[in-house]
Amino acid sequence: MAAFWSPCEPPFQQRYSFLFSPASQAGQWRKTHDAEMTKECDLPLIDLSRLHCGDEKERTACVAEIGRASSEWGFFQVVNHGIQSELLQAVGREQRKPFGAPFEEKTGQKFLNGSYRWGNPTAISLAQFSWSESFHLPLSVLAGDDHACHEELEPFRSQVASFSYAPEVMRKASTAMADLARILAGVLAENLGCRGDLFADSCGEGSCFLRLNRYPPCPFSSDTFGLVPHTDSDFLTILHQDHVGGLHLMKDTRWVSVKPNPEALIVIIGDLFQACLAWSNDLYKSVEHRVMTNGKVERYSIAYFLCPSYEFTIGSYRKPSRYRNFTFGEFRKQVQEDVKKIGYKVGLSRFLA
Ligand SMILES: O=C(O)CCC(=O)C(=O)O
Ligand SMILES: [Fe+2]
To answer: Whole-model pTM?
Structure first.
């Protein structure tokens, strides 16, 4: 186990020793979900070049395919998404740099404006624990938006410049992921006969963010989550994962693992799309997903979260609605409170009508 130690690694075992004692690991929960595991699968793979090819029939077929995948899976992969693979490779290299800083530095308020997270401070069992570290970077800062030049973001801005030897890469990638997320949100709205800009227009740089994830090798890999099962609290997420694998999603009642595809980006439907369009069981699903650790190699991913402003009201566009109206700010606050008090996110069921 000493082999895993470095001054950059989060001290998971030391700080959470009560979770990793032989007694607490003997719990039954892990055995249960092992039995549920199925094989690696290929998600629906959608070629987005058809959205812009000028052939209306092709475009309509592509929109329908995106809609179908969003209701049957809540997850799909896209190729020809308009983000160059060189840019994705560069961002994959770039994102490693802040994680390479000593742990004590990463946890400091001055390092990337205190955006560092690791483990779960409230976990009381292994089932609630994530063996991973991440940085939550607001888009307004990465995009270098002068309108978002709040004083409190200044230290952050300079830190972005100093951690990154090529900050331009991060900026370009986040802008490109944001553009793609808006296009897809438009397609998803259009597929239901809504205005294409209905959701995307409510999403500003103030609330959208990029999360850099790192999953260190884990000596208890068969017992530990890299990221606990969750749904995303946004409209949709664009995810870029490296070649290692470990992402699982819930398909019907089983976990399936997602085979890494270097050319593709993964699209995940979030809670807000489910709530806005909740008038039928057949519509878009926000499905649970999780990351499993592995004992040998580290894994990286980068996720862009398309979120509305905190004042934006989420309400179903058809009646009767399954959920009451709520603002995104209320939703986030409730999620944070639940995680703090009970150790997990309850999510949309808190907002049933
Ligand atoms: O790392 C991954 O593959 C998934 C990350 C994720 O689900 C998240 O950041 O919400
Ligand atoms: Fe997620």
So the answer is: 0.90
